Amino acid sequence: MTDVVRKDVLARLQDGDYSCAKEFTLAMFAGKWKLIILCHLDAHGTFRFNDLRRLLPRVTHKVLTSQLRELEEDQLISRREVLGPRKKVYYQITPLGHSLMPIIDAMCDWGDARIAQLRVDPTFSADESVLPTE
User: Fold this and answer.
1) For 28-58, how does the pLDDT look when each residue is reduced to its tens digit (9 = 90+)?
2) Residue 1 to residue 50: CA distance in whole angstroms
3) Residue 14 near residue 6, CB atoms below 8 Å
């Protein structure tokens, strides 16, 4: 499923009916898994598709594929295929994607502070032990 916010923002931008840079910025990483994908690619380098699947055990194949395609279309990540007996696909963050990291880091800091204020102990659905394989 394509992210509705991103699709709407890009359509309005194409039509010239657009006036909010903040909304455009948020649309670039709107989607359940995009922030996590960008953060891990930035922190750990290149991941293969199945590494990302193991990293995000609750994501479906279809949703991960969709999120990766959208990130690639928006030039935030790059996709590289290596042909051989079995095709290998690698994903890495681009300089443009990396330029979003200060914004994402600020959002993370705000979230950490707010979670501490609420005195909750969140459980996250990413397997932090998964590292990229080459």
Assistant:
1) 888 889 999 999 999 999 999 999 999 988 8
2) 20
3) no
